[in-house]
């Protein structure tokens, strides 16, 4: 069993490992999404506020969730705010109100929304709260086990719609703000992030899942979104956007990049021209958000990431490609088939 990918069994391909250990089965995803959809409906009805919409983001929304480590971001777009500063001024109160609404539900209120009390209401509790979000943990019963699901609720306003969908206009507005204020814009771009990741091929999402699983099981400090950006970058720049790439090839390239983490300067061309905003990039390491030129997703845990990636590269040398160590036409399987054919031919020769 590997110490770099917990649960990996010697001789299996990374594709098989993802199938059996990392990617959530469809019935699990359906069960989690049912709960998350209930939370979305409940948030829509929060009294005292005019809510435009609640967008389900995070790994569940993007399709990059890992088994037993599901998380959902509920981005709540509020009406009634003219600019980001007015929202920032109210955020702490909004978060306090969300906490009270979620953790101390009024039976008369939720019975108006649901025919019966949802099971997550009995398990919900706060695990983190700051000026950007409030993080809850809820538990969902699946096959007799209580599975944890992290739910982040993040207040936002639809700044993109206020600029008529013109992202360049939004960036120019951000350009004149302090770095502290700019930090509150990122969550407002959740729909653009979803549009970027959701349509990607299933195998790209599996590569992202593998990167998330790797950093979490090795106790590294990284943002899940950084893994998503790196997965997209590797697919575009190193796998030539081929959907039939070998998972070992993609993961190996990721470990090569992470082994020199301090030298990473990753941008993905798309919504913005990187040349226009390069003066705002960090001087050294960065993995930029493809929809926000002011947002660096990289980690400061440089030494630990590099050390673990270097060790993982050595370990990967003994991991077979999908066609080598698994499937009907693996080397072992091919030898077995040939042996059977030889035996059959010998038997036929005796009969004749």
Task: Write a structural description.
The structure is a single chain. The protein has 352 residues and is α/β, with parallel strands linked by helices. The protein has three domains: 1-199, Beta Polymerase, domain 2, CATH 3.30.460.10; 200-320, Poly(a)-polymerase, middle domain, CATH 1.10.1410; 322-351. 49% of the residues lie in helices and 15% in strands. It has 16 helices and eight strands. The chain has helices at 14-22, 26-44, 58-62, 84-103, 107-113, 159-162, 167-175, 179-182, 190-197, 202-217, 224-237, 247-259, 274-277, 302-316, 322-325, 331-351, and strands spanning 51-57, 70-78, 125-129, 134-142, 145-156, 265-266, 286-289, 292-296. The strands form two sheets. It has a five-stranded mixed β-sheet, with helices on both faces. Strands 6-7-8 form a three-stranded mixed β-sheet. Helix 13 (274-277) links the parallel strand 6 (265-266) and strand 7 (286-289). The chain is globular, with a radius of gyration of 24 Å. The protein starts with 13 loop residues before the first helix and ends with a helix. 33% of the residues are buried. Residues 324-338 have low confidence and may be disordered.
